[in-house]
Amino acid sequence: MVKDSGSRQEPEPRERPNVKKNLSDRAYNALRDALMRGHLEPGNQLPLRPTSARFGISPTPMREALTRLVVERALTLNDRGTVIVPDLTKAELLEIRDIRKDLEGRCAAQAAQIAHEDEKQALDDLNRQFMQSLKHGNYREAVDLNTQFHLQLAKMAKLPLTYEIIEGLWVRCGPILTHLYDSGLPTNWASHPHQRILDALRNNDPASASDAIYHDIEDGGRGLLNYVSQ
Questions:
Q1: What mean pLDDT do residues 129-158 have?
Q2: Radius of gyration, CA atoms only, the chain
Q3: What is the rounded distance in angstroms from the CA atom of residue 100 to the CA atom of residue 122?
Q4: Strands in the chain per DSSP E
Q5: According to the UniProt entry, which residue ranges have a biased composition of type Basic and acidic residues (predicted)?
Q6: Is residue 186 helix, strand or coil?
Q7: Hey, which of 47, 68, 119, 164 has its CA 20 to 30 A from 58?
Q8: pLDDT grade, residue 219 (50/70/90)?
Q9: Could you give the CA distance from residue 47 to residue 110 in angstroms, rounded to a whole number?
Q10: pLDDT digits (tens, 9 = 90+) for 73-121
């Protein structure tokens, strides 16, 4: 009997690792995005199969992504070997905050000098959505939009290596930002620091842009110190 050599040919072996890698990267990026945007909270457990179902990705690439994030210390293992979102210590939070002030301040200053008008308008539109969320007490959405605002501003600086570091910091601190507005908004804000940032961008004022992002990170995150261990 002659074997059918038509449409049932298996794909070339070299194609399979690419498919596997793409799925693993997709799982990895989905988890990172969820961490950055406060969709996962400190202490959340991430057992393999429920996490795979939640993100719509099969278990094998999800396992690889979880392992990768554990190695990077964005996730950790509990005593039973289950992957969990780690708690930050006070020292870790303060260190991340200081690095963010430095790097995001540099990006804000750079963006004030080189950003195009359409980029500034897009950031302004995003901030309007953010302010509406705060106004209506939709703090979960506000946390998400706040993350998007900061990362979009950093990206406007066109400093890819710096942006990569900033994104990594947000992966580490994003989960605790679910508590960002637990105590309400800071009472010493005449206007939200985001507005000062936007004004500085419109005026092409790098010093004011850097100063505004510094105070946003410093003052806006002060209440988070209540939610970290010593």
A1: 94
A2: 21
A3: 22
A4: 76-77, 83-84
A5: 1-24
A6: coil
A7: 164
A8: confident
A9: 42
A10: 999 999 999 999 999 999 999 999 999 999 999 999 999 999 999 999 9
Residues 174 and 68 grouped into a single domain: no
* Three-class secondary structure of residue 210 per DSSP: helix
Residue 41 and residue 140 in contact, taking contact as beta carbons nearer than 8 Å: no
SS3 42: coil
Amino acid identity, position 4: D
Q: Which residue has the higher pLDDT, 180 or 22?
A: 22
Do both 78 and 94 map to the same domain? no
Domain of 142 in residue numbering reads as 90-227
Structure-block tokens of residue 224: 């988070």
Rounded mean pLDDT, 15-20: 53
Quote the tokens at residue 7.
């449409």
For tokens 């939709």, name the residue. 138
